Amino acid sequence: MTAPMVKIDALSKRFQSGGGLFAKPRTMMAVREVTLSIGKGEVLGVVGESGCGKSTLARLVLRLIEPTSGRVTIDGTDITALSAGALRRIRRRMAMVFQDPYSSLDPRYSLADVLAEPLRLQGEVIAPARVDEMLASVGLPAALAASHPHQLSGGQRQRVGIARALALKPDFVVLDEPTASLDVSIQAQIIALLADLRDRLGLTYLFISHDLGLVRYFCDRIVVMYLGSVVEVLPDTRTAPRHPYTRALMDSNFAPDPARRRVIEMLTGEVPSPFALPPGCAFATRCPRASDRCRRDTPALGGDAAHPVACFHPL
Amino acid sequence: MIAPLRALRRPQGAVAGLWLILVICAALFAPLLTPYAYDIQNLPNAYQPASAQHWLGTDEFGRDLLTRLIYGARTSLSVSATAISISVFCGMVLGASAAWFGGWLDRIVTMTVDLTWSFPEILIALILVAIIGPGTTGVMIAISVAYLAQFTRLTRAQIMTLKGETFIEAARSLGAGNAHLLFRHLLPNALAPVLVSAMLATGDAIILEATLGFFGLGAQPPVPSWGGMMSAGSALVFKAPWVIIFPGLAVAITVVAINLYGDALIAELDIRSRLRREA
Amino acid sequence: MTALLKLDDISVSIGNLGLLDRISLSVGRGQVVGLVGESGSGKSLTAMAAIGLLPLIGGRVTKGTVRFDGQDMAAMTETQRRKLRGARIGFVTQNPMTALDPVQRIGEQVDVVSRLHLGLSRADARARTLDLLTRLRIPEAGAVVDAWPHQLSGGMKQRIVIAMALAGDPDLIIADEPTTALDVTVQAQIIQILGSLVRERGVALLLITHDMGVVAQVCDRVAVLYAGRLAEEGPVGPIFAAPAHPYTAALIGCIPQDGMAKGSLTGIPGAVPSAAAFPAGCRFHPRCPRASDLCRNTPPMIVHRTAGQVACHHPGEAE
């Protein structure tokens, strides 16, 4: 791996919920001590189910929300230490594509306005031909420049979202479930576009998804999160998982082949509330391999440096 | 075509819109439309019923009622519209800052607004006029304060909802600051429902203005206002009923027209649910 | 096996807009039939037509017949149809949050179904509920019956909805994207449970989904819809092994699989046309790699094969 593009160092985020005149606020760790690095040109996948903290992580990495503790360094600059003004300026180097293509575009903006906005925000003048160029780069016809988001399909909107993210020619793009609300046929189109753009522009991606099958197809390295913590980092897409949770995620992915039908080993038990995590391993309540030790002590991410796993009884 | 024009294509929008245009034109061009002056008394001519010279008859001082009605539209519309404009402006500033900055500012604004919200507008207006003193300016301020809570609440609710939209986060991720988010995204998106609700409130404000005028707290004689005219006519109900009936009709039809047109506009803009959310 | 639900060559319109065109399919007892296609392909509309719910959205069957257990649905009165839906058909919707009454305890909501449709006493209904919940692998069913909906997770709620669908001993269950709103691990479990329960009890299941993986895992037959027409229908084995219709092949190819080379997932170009803008000829031709002039001009006939049907001018040719 070349010099890292992004370094995430012991990043944590605590959220408070509720609280008021009579209620005591409850707290949860949405992201707990996450340390990662992303190499230049790498596609790092983060996978997990709802509530695992992957979307919070995405926002922390771009400092769209303030971390409770920890640091994020992007190409040598510690963005967690930057002033508001400096942070706004460095945003040209990093961008984000959002999950919901419906609410991620201002309904009052034409596509030309949407695509011009990032340049305007960074004090650049936009040449009229630039919008057409941006539309073309994501496979949309220039004729759409004057249309408004409600006239487009979900897939087209997501292409606009990608074009907007790339408007300032960033080096690093966070993709937060960019295909989760699209049809599978459109998902495949968007993934192909993202792969093509990465090759053409030498981008570095942080790809957030709940779909391990998709992540294994698209990403170079895979981080698996469960209830705020990283439980395993797969060094490549072929390596067999060692954490029972990763295994369960993988088993939940049905291959489109009736000949490979299988009986899934059921995860019993419920996902604990993130506001009241039990002691020990957070996955122990559902884990078939859980022992008394798992319910008492919290396993640290460790073992093989290239393939770390946070489990007392790895596969 | 823009929504206010599209609303005119709906049947009820067209009828109501036509009436409103008529009233607004009458108010604007009052001196050109009538040969009479609104204030010169002609006592021998008093209590005339409708005739070719005086289409709507004359009042107790022999003044042409139609002339006074047209000049009265000037007072009623300008006072209500100005008051609501002030109210909308202040309400948007207050509501938007409360929603955007949150914290103690939001708490103070919300608390004050909820407090005034729990009194009827007329009560607030009466108290304020009592403090400021009667007259057009006093009424204007009183009405604008009376409706401030409504626009503050509506704007705050709109901005709160919009704040959570992904396009706000997207703009921030590209380096947008507070001013850009507020003036380029949040306020423009909140504007349509606020303006429509302002238009509907103008109808209520006309009634409020007429009520204050009826109590003798509005425009002072001889300047006519619809409420003042009705007040004068209330003593003549049996002797010259037209003196109270026509200004009463003017208020009623105008207010109904504003509401009908407002409904057409709401349907055209498709914002019914967004208006309900606040209430 | 005689079909419990049989759609025979039905067409559906809303106003003057033709939305479904000549769709035939059947579901037998103990059988799981998948109805797949992208959004806008007419899956949910087909299900609504199957159970006579089209009037709700102003639609009507313009051609063909729907038979439930041999009876023609069109010949029934609305009261009879309503009774049929209540007593013999169970529903599982996409969003379990809206299917449960928030102010009633879980147990009561499930009990009421069997009390109403099977005439069970309170005690018998509760026993049946507990048995169902246990079969659905709900841990501590005895405690769950006394819980409120908001106390349960999404996956748990969806299991309750399935229990409600099964409680009246229906002959047919229609499940519209039952797992889309759920987490992947939970999704897999629910699909598995639903499949096995249906087979065990001899219930027919019409499963609406967009996920070919789910179809391969649990269905016996699959009907692929595109833009209101049937593209291909038949048993899953042969269809997944050698899809005759290029749309079926493309849908299968959209699912990332282990060992797939990077760049091999390209999706289907373009998008599903809206009903007002269906293209002439084969409706899939603008997105089809095999499209010829024939496809652009003439809609393909539905060809019945030994085990299924396909509507394509160039079926099963190599890409």
From TrEMBL, chain A:
InterPro entries: AAA+_ATPase (IPR003593), ABC_transp_ATP-bind (IPR050319), ABC_transporter-like_ATP-bd (IPR003439), ABC_transporter-like_CS (IPR017871), Oligopep_ABC_C (IPR013563), P-loop_NTPase (IPR027417). One of its GO terms (biological process) is peptide transport. PROSITE patterns: ABC_TRANSPORTER_1, ABC_TRANSPORTER_2. Its main location: membrane. Residues 6-252 form the ABC transporter domain. The keyword Nucleotide-binding applies. It is a peripheral membrane protein. GO terms for cellular component: plasma membrane. Keywords: ATP-binding, Nucleotide-binding, Transport. One of its GO terms (molecular function) is ATP hydrolysis activity. It is found in: Cell inner membrane. SUPFAM superfamilies: P-loop containing nucleoside triphosphate hydrolases. Belongs to the ABC transporter superfamily. PANTHER family: D,D-DIPEPTIDE TRANSPORT ATP-BINDING PROTEIN DDPF-RELATED (PTHR43776:SF7), TRANSPORT ATP-BINDING PROTEIN (PTHR43776). This is Peptide ABC transporter ATP-binding protein.
From TrEMBL, chain B:
PROSITE patterns: ABC_TM1. It is a multi-pass membrane protein. CDD domains: TM_PBP2 (cd06261). GO terms for biological process: transmembrane transport. The chain crosses the membrane at residues 16-38, 77-102, 122-149, 190-220, 240-267. Keywords: Cell membrane, Membrane, Transmembrane, Transmembrane helix, Transport. InterPro entries: BP-dependent_transpt_permease, MetI-like, MetI-like_sf, OppC_N. Residues 73-262 form the ABC transmembrane type-1 domain. It is found in: Cell membrane. One of its GO terms (cellular component) is plasma membrane. Belongs to the binding-protein-dependent transport system permease family. This is Peptide ABC transporter permease.
Automatic annotation (TrEMBL), chain C:
Residues 5-252 form the ABC transporter domain. InterPro entries: AAA+_ATPase (IPR003593), ABC_Ni/Peptide_Import (IPR050388), ABC_transporter-like_ATP-bd (IPR003439), ABC_transporter-like_CS (IPR017871), Oligopep_ABC_C (IPR013563), P-loop_NTPase (IPR027417). Keywords: ATP-binding, Cell membrane, Membrane, Nucleotide-binding, Transport. The keyword Transport applies. SUPFAM superfamilies: P-loop containing nucleoside triphosphate hydrolases (SSF52540). It holds the Pfam family ABC_tran. GO terms for molecular function: ATP binding; ATP hydrolysis activity. PROSITE patterns: ABC_TRANSPORTER_1, ABC_TRANSPORTER_2. One of its GO terms (cellular component) is plasma membrane. GO terms for biological process: peptide transport; transmembrane transport. It is found in: Cell inner membrane. The keyword Protease does not apply. It is a peripheral membrane protein. Belongs to the ABC transporter superfamily. This is ABC transporter ATP-binding protein. It comes from Fuscovulum blasticum DSM 2131.
